[in-house]
Design goal:
- With about 210 residues, this protein is of the alpha+beta class.
- The protein is built from 11 helices and 8 strands.
- Helix 5 runs antiparallel to helix 7 and helix 7 packs across helix 10.
- The protein has 2 domains: about 55 residues, Orthogonal Bundle (Arc Repressor Mutant, subunit A); about 140 residues, no CATH class.
- A 3-stranded antiparallel β-sheet has the order 1-3-2.
Amino acid sequence: MNKANTNEDAVLSLAREVGILRVRDLATRGIHPEYLRRLHKKGLLIRTARGLYMLSDAPETQAQISEHQSLLEVAKRVPNGVACLLTALRFHDLGSQNPRDVWVAVDRRAAKPRITHPPVRIVRFSGKALTEGVGRHWIAGVSVNVYNPAKTVADCFKYRNKIGLDVAQDALRDCLSQRKCTIDDLWRYAKICRVTEVIRPHLEALR
């Protein structure tokens, strides 16, 4: 087997392992990115976005990517970011939001990610508001950070002026009715986000 075939096999194997390939994934393994273009031309890889490729014959992977494509693309480009607010609500099936943008929390001191597509809304968090309640999920071989339901609800009340109080109220109601968190969970994250007094009357109205 010649070197070209060996490298192509290595790229295909890596695509099966990680789900979505970036040029950087090949560079760290000493494989020229030209192999991505060759395999794309042969129909063995499809391009999901600029610089992102996946196997063309993985129906289960394609189904997952179809559902979460924008989120996966952002997760690959902003690996330290955490899906939050409307995107986290959508991920957890809370409320009725279907945001066009991917909402991502990053450290207050971090450089702004340079992403032109898909559209991204960057929110600056710090301290425990950034680090607590983060769940790591594997989707189509991609590691995706998403705040858990209780933390997401607390964030929605904190940013109610940005996303709408009605959105936060719907998220709270769904989170409790679907038993995706407990009231103790909500209070814990409400304290971290400093919204205990804001969320208190809404909790009491649901009792």
